[in-house]
Amino acid sequence: MRVKSLEISGFKSFAKKSVFDFGAAITSIVGPNGSGKSNVAEALRFVLGEQSLKSMRGKRTEDLIFNGSKSAERQNRAKVTIIFDNRDRTFPVDFDEVAIAREIHRDASSEYFLNGSSVRLKDVIELLSAVHIGASGHHIISQGEADRILNSSPKDRRAMIEDALGLKVYHWRIAESEKKLVKTEENMRQSESLRREIAPHIKFLKKQVEKVEQARSLRDELTGLYDEYLKREEAYLKHTREAQKIERETLEGELHTTNEELERAEALRGARHTESTEANELLRVRGELGNIRRERDELARKIGRLEGMIEMEERRLNAPVESQDKMISARESESMAQELFTELGYAESSEDYLYIKGVVSRTRTRIGQFLEHLRGDAGVSARSEEARHAIDGLKGEREALVVAQRDLEVKSMQLEAQARELEKALEAKRAETSDAERASFELRSKKQELTLRLSMLRDHAENFAREEVAFREELREGGILVGRTILDYVNFPLDVEQALTESRAEQEARRKKIERTKIRLEDIMGGGSGEEIMREYEEAVARDEFLAKELQDLEASAESLRALMRELEETLNGQFKEGISKINKQFSEFFALMFGGGTASLQVSYEKKRKRSDTDIAEGPDETEGEESEEGIEVSIALPHKKIRGLQMLSGGERALTSIALLFAVSQVNPPPFLVLDETDAALDEANSRKYGDMIENLAKYSQLVVITHNRETMSRAGIIYGVTMGSDAISKLLSIKFDEAAQLAK
């Protein structure tokens, strides 16, 4: 692989498109100071992806774009394209030519192209790393940088040597592995943190799941109870429904037949109305006879009382009167009061006006006599007269009552004769209709019984309807608690005949057991199904298992990264030591060639540096700091005929020769596809310039060389010379000489 050409447009002083064809092993670029020669090396850095503006002698992106002059307008973009010959497929792309282009604009935007297709900077770097070249590699040595390898610290010198040996990729891989390891460890911490966060929730959910599982066990038990209960209840309801239907139809049929028979029996009792009239007449006569008898008895009692009163009045009239004694004994007073009380009681219960009037008259007379008796003999004669009148009145009342009593006796005998006649007639009628009456009575009794049974059957039907509603409600509640599996009760094995013979108390006991189980289930689940808790628990456990698996994978990945880093470190150290050995061999040869003898070598050094650990920082500033060992590269030289052992004792020319010998030695160990030398021979005298020329001719066998120089000896070794000039317009222009073509033309 080699560089075919470099195209520059708008970059720094190359305002116009300029093309460099690198058709020779050594291409020399010459020109006066300030003409823009070094811009060619910087253009190469630029197109290979250099990001440091300082290394390209700029501060801003605009500094890399042609800024114009008095006679030329400024450019708004800069573009550099490098074309590689890839027929040997050194680049891992299927193209004979690989063109890498970079374009920038004044707004600081940057674009990269690979064979005309837009790509990323990372893609360019990865492509170039395959052939060990890059923007800041050892293959581009700018003016003043030749001595940098000697002036650098041992650590920086080691980095430069590793870059030259192509070991930078290992550092990059180690750095990438470290980043991945840090990211992996961070992910591990996050996973562990997430597991710690969800652990209490999983613990809580586990307790809930235990309740759910207990509820499921109860639900299964409830399902079994429901299966038997519902199957038995369904069989009972079906049997009862059919039995009630048959019984209702039977009773209705019997009632209909009884009504028809009753109508026929009533038709046979045609004389029933007449019998009823005579019976009513008999009842009336007997009632009237009873009234007359009661009235007759009442008259007899009244007559008896009147006779008693007459006798008492007569005894009182004939009794002697004591004129001197005005005192009334208590017995006499009690006797009079008792008589008045009895007489007035009879009057109160009687409905006879004359009798009541007589009682009132006698009571008044008796009280008058009592008062006269209290007043003395003056009213004796008057009282006797009144007593005689009272006796006469009582006798008149008695005679009237006796007459009325005789009339009632006559009327009573008449009514008794009439009642006997009616009884004889009614008995004859009853004898005629006894059979029809008996049949009618029996049918009415049967009708009443059937009606009562139908009424009871309707009551039973209402209770049965409530049982059916309760059955449907149980089905609904069971469906809510145990799901659609409640319908599986239809498949429950049951001996229906045996089930119908058991008492309802046993079925009621099953229902109560179901109710207790339902209450326990509702207490555990609070009315929920638990599916959401199970789903949440399963998700949480799955999340925890995923995190655990992820943590395990991350731990394996971290260990794999650590193993990879150890392997890369071992490979890096092994190849570095091997590379140092090869460099030392070439370095010694080039050094002896440049100085006519002497020795030079690179040696690995270890520098101990103070490093404070986290513990030291926590303990305070006065605590002992830690130490770490840092590897570097020291340059050891011995000049011929001089006792100079250190780099600090070398002159400027000697330092230049030493740095050139070291750079060329490094290039020989891992030859890059091309090597750019920007005035690295500026400090050499004529004799050393020849040695320098011999060295670059030797290097040209392994790498394509682009040499920017003022040295004629160096120019004489080039196959192509590009002259760079600059006029008053401040634009760099190219002139080219191809010595191989010129020699052929001269011949």
TrEMBL record:
Residues 241-316, 405-439, 497-578 form a coiled coil. Residues 605-633 are annotated as: Disordered. Residues 616-633 have a biased composition (Acidic residues). Gene3D superfamilies: P-loop containing nucleotide triphosphate hydrolases (3.40.50.300). Signal peptide: none annotated. It holds the Pfam family SMC_N. Residues 3-732 form the RecF/RecN/SMC N-terminal domain. Keywords: Coiled coil. This is RecF/RecN/SMC N-terminal domain-containing protein. It comes from Candidatus Yonathbacteria bacterium RIFCSPLOWO2_01_FULL_47_33b.
